[in-house]
Amino acid sequence: MTLRQFKLPDVGEGLTDGEILQWLVAVGDTVTVNQPLCEVETAKAAVELPSPYAGTVTELLFEAGTTVDVGTPIITIDDGADAPAPAPVPAPAAAGAGTDGSEEPAAGLIGGAAPGGRTAVLVGYGPRTTEARRRPRRGGPPPARPAATPGADYGSGGHDRPPLLATAPDMTVKPVRHGGLEVGRQAEAHAAAEEAATALGAAPGRGRLRPLAKPPVRKLAKDLGVDLAALTGSGAGGVITREDVTAAAAGPAPVAAPAAAAPAPVAAAAAGERIPVKGVRKATAAAMVASAFTAPHVTEFLTVDVTRMMKLRQRIAARPEFAGVKVSPLLFVAKALLLAARRHPMVNSSWDEAAQEIVVHGQVNLGIAAATPRGLVVPNVKDAGRLSLPELATALAELTETARAGRTAPGDMAGGTITITNVGVFGVDTGTPILNPGESAILAFGAVREMPWVHKGKVRVRQVTQLALSFDHRIVDGELGSRFLADVGALLSDPGTALAF
Amino acid sequence: MSVSSATTEVVDPVPGAAAPHLPEQPDLVQLLTPEGERVEHPDYSIDVSAEELRDLYRDLVLVRRWDVEATALQRQGELGIWASLLGQEAAQIGAGRALQDGDVAFPTYREHGVAWTRGVDPLHVISLFRGVDNGGWDPVATAFNLYTVVIGAQCLHATGYAMGLQRDGAEHAALAFLGDGATSQGEVNEAMIWAASFSAPVVFFCQNNQYAISVPLERQTRVPLYQRAAGFGFPGVRVDGNDVLAVLAVTRAALAAAREGQGPTFIEAFTYRMGAHTTSDDPTRYRLASELEEWKLRDPIARVKAHLSRSGVADAAFFDSVEAEADELAKRIRTGTVEMPDPPGTAMFDQVYAEQTPPLAAQQAQFEAYQASFEGSEH
Description:
The complex is a heterodimer. Chain A is α+β, with helices and mostly antiparallel strands. Chain A contains eleven helices and 20 strands. Chain A has helices spanning 180-198, 215-224, 242-250, 256-261, 264-269, 279-292, 307-317, 329-343, 389-404, 410-413, 478-493, and strands spanning 3-7, 17-23, 30-31, 36-41, 46-50, 55-60, 67-69, 73-78, 113-114, 118-119, 297-305, 349-352, 357-360, 366-372, 375-377, 380-381, 418-421, 441-445, 449-455, 458-472. Chain B has a five-stranded parallel sheet, with helices on both faces. A two-stranded antiparallel sheet of chain B has the order 4-5. In chain B, helix 2 packs antiparallel against helix 12 (300-310), helix 2 (50-75) packs parallel to helix 13 and helix 7 runs parallel beside helix 8 (186-197). Chain B is globular and about 70 Å long. The interface between A and B is medium-sized, with 35 and 31 residues.
């Protein structure tokens, strides 16, 4: 028997990896040539891979959901032919993306996430995220620089004028092409050199309105603070070269030399780390970019004395219906927000660009931004406005626990209408939150601190927090945003206000 | 909506005229309906023998099989890319079979069906897509120019060649292939202006497969493409590109007119790319599956098969033999592809110029030295 291995091919011009979406065959199955074996998603498309062999499947080397590098064997098929035993199967190595690609909601769509950390595009490959692999070189000294090879050096040898058409370019700057622009530049430099040679006493590179240097060299000089007019060009025709500029920059300042020699250990220590963008990080990034550059954000701040709320919290926590339920300050902020949203339904809305409509939601699906070991997730409590306080407390506790355990279902994250981000748990005062995409308001709840506060005409130590409300100015004007935030603040500073709502 | 009602709805009353985005669908020349019924057209008629009909069917099936096998080979890593002709077989076979000795075809990179009619070995086309060579066939001997990947450039080549024919006094014609997207290219418009100005014996054969990669036709044009010809000053005709008989008749007439000195014709073969633009493309991202289902009802091969069996011109034995031949062809293509030898890395220097220049020789020497600097580079 002969075991044949099918290596993951590059199905789309320059792809480096693909994710096995599903296997269409199992171990033991008999397959024919061109029978689909599996479905693979690449940065370009999801495609079925047909079998190049007929025979019996003996091994599937990767599970569905794995991202595999192009060229890695993915399946072993026994084609039934007589042959010596196969070479040992190399240990399969999954590529960086791992098995959590299912968390990327926009995967596969144009502009969305694509396997391998790329961005899906219609044509072309998307930005590369992998490094090119190099074949090992033979030992010994590296080959001479091609530019120095005699014979390739056409027409420029030994002349101090630039040839009309150089083919031995300044390799450190850029390759010279025989394009119109380069020919024109060469002709220009040639003419300038003629002119300079006839001008009495005029040294090349001096006495001009503008010293001769190529644009990248000008840029370098600007970056290094070198005055080109003060230099004498060593290049053909007095053109100032990159070396002239670097020499001028280093020459008069010998102090720079030890500094240049020293940084090796520093560089090693500061080399840092490159982390592939995937999973929750990638989804978060896409959502934040989409939101920040779609909805014009306005953020307003309010500092609130929440001493009464904190006292109320203790009283409520002692009530029997709250036995076993965590009564956190966040619960009160959530309740205050729900009450205020009932008064100002427009903050609980979405902008429908396609329909040119503002969608005012009938119910409040309250999102809570939760920090989890895998990153930020924003699950929401469906129809939170209808819940009693104990129900809301239970729902919030379950939500955050599920999120921290990494078990939040996609449905729990979909359909949010307004969000609270509790930055206070990290001891932070406030921030300017970015809207959860599709929503028009997000409230940041800062740390509750004991602060000197003017209370009933005297400076007292009070429990004070800061609220920050970001809203989508397409829907919510400053007036509405301010009223909404003031209402939330009023409910927290004097919970009795709720009776008036 | 049930499947059956959907099926009855999508069979449009004007067969072939399915481009709902265009305001008004003009009549298109059709001689064989999607149901396989022979119909007549006032301006174009064709008289094909039973033998010719069977041959056309054979061409269509074999070319499709070649295409399917090449697509599979690409998915197996044996080809770098493949541009599928799926759905456009009739347009290509019909146009290719209209050529006579002395005529020359100037293809894009998708004219595998035309290549087939010119006797080009499928493996010589596949070697190009495997990256082994730049196309293995002799363009002079086959009168089938090398594939042109630059969109629309071949229209200039064809027009220039046609002007040469004219100056030689030869009674032949050039057949330039292009797609709907190429009509937006400068070269194509320039070629048509020149062709019109000099009454060059060239036929522009546009396979309107509805998409320029992902760009739908309505982004290319506000008028049916064939009407553009009027602006250049020569006739334009829209033909059902999935009807091999109509394509054959219309292309024959256009080539005959060109040979007789009546100047160019623009043929818009109204068809549909049933596959992806190339194997690197994912059409599900820009078009609906329902559209494909609609066009499947106008399949270019199914209608010929229906006609053959209904008119008693071919029996089951014939269809089986064609299938068997297709299987053999697929096998030959598969084996031939996998066994193609890799060209040496320096082959790219061989055909840059007719005679190698000193700078190129120096580059080749450098490249050889560079290659030799790697471990395991003995071969």
